[in-house]
């Protein structure tokens, strides 16, 4: 019995020592964008419901016209050929933009409707950031990506909040498509 307790003590000490050699944060960090390759239909329906409610109830309440066409990118070979890290950075910026706009104060009925899409986008952005930290921690954006990011930043400074909110909500499916393409590693055109 004493020998069994001694062996158990040795195993516990070795296990604790090995646990210190491999920190748990290092073991758990993986890039898991695969769940965004094909989005769950109920999530897509929630986004569609939110867009419809926005168009029916809120869009007509104020002027939401924009001078900048943020999501009307030409799909030329030059923009379609972003590297995988560039595409991840672009999707992260798009998700940040959409999350910020969905987080704006809204009538209670719309705030309730947008909660599920907001949760989806927030989880996707967090997963994307984890992947960026693992896959390309020191990646520098290309000239093409810098141009697209600058366009987004300029719009944030020059357009009205109503315009930006409408742009984000009405282009959520394009943002989700960009996320799916990044998750698959596709060159979406």
Automatic annotation (TrEMBL):
GO cellular component annotations of the record: extracellular space
GO terms, molecular function: cytokine activity
N-terminal signal peptide: 1-21
Gene Ontology BP, a term: defense response to virus
Pfam family for this entry, one: IL28A
Keyword set, alphabetical order: Antiviral defense, Cytokine, Secreted, Signal
Subcellular location field: Secreted
Family label: Belongs to the lambda interferon family.
PANTHER family listed in its UniProt record: INTERFERON LAMBDA-2-RELATED, INTERLEUKIN-28 AND 29
Record-given protein name: IFNL3 protein
Gene: Ifnl3
